[in-house]
Design a protein that fits this description.
single chain
Length: 136
């Protein structure tokens, strides 16, 4: 698969950690660099770690799915785009995000998917005490 096919496969299958993680190369990585400021791992590598990361997210947002995917820059092996989600967490909190991401494809797999997101919204949705739970 090329970069475009991989991002569409990833976003279409985000609700299934096994399928989504299988799109990554053995040394592929999922990076959300700003999550570190929330005390959440910001980089996971390889399909197994990525599956664990996505599974933990799905425990909080079981019906996770992307509602809109827009490709802004597209080459055979790299893509940049935006994708959004409007769901509710198991605690009844809104999980509303607009992601921006860059995907690098290599040999038909995802070598790197680096995403940015709104950390205030993430904290409100995912941390037990909302933004008050952001580590100092």
């Amino acid at each position: 698969m090329n970069a475009r096919e991989l991002i569409y496969a990833y976003t279409a299958n985000i609700g299934d950690a096994d399928v989504a993680s299988a799109l990554f190369a053995e040394d592929g990585a999922l990076e959300l660099p700003y999550l570190a400021s929330l005390g959440i791992p910001s980089r996971v590598e390889g399909p197994s770690e990525i599956r664990e990361f996505l599974s933990a997210l799905l425990e909080h947002v079981p019906d996770l799915g992307f509602d809109k995917v827009e490709i802004l820059i597209d080459t055979e092996d790299q893509i940049f785009g935006e994708w959004s989600v409007e769901r509710t967490t198991v605690d009844g909190r809104p999980f509303s995000q607009n992601y921006a991401g860059r995907l690098v494809a290599e040999n038909g797999k995802i070598k790197l998917l680096r995403e940015s997101l709104d950390l205030v919204r993430a904290a409100r949705a995912m941390l037990p005490n909302g933004v008050a739970g952001i580590p100092h």
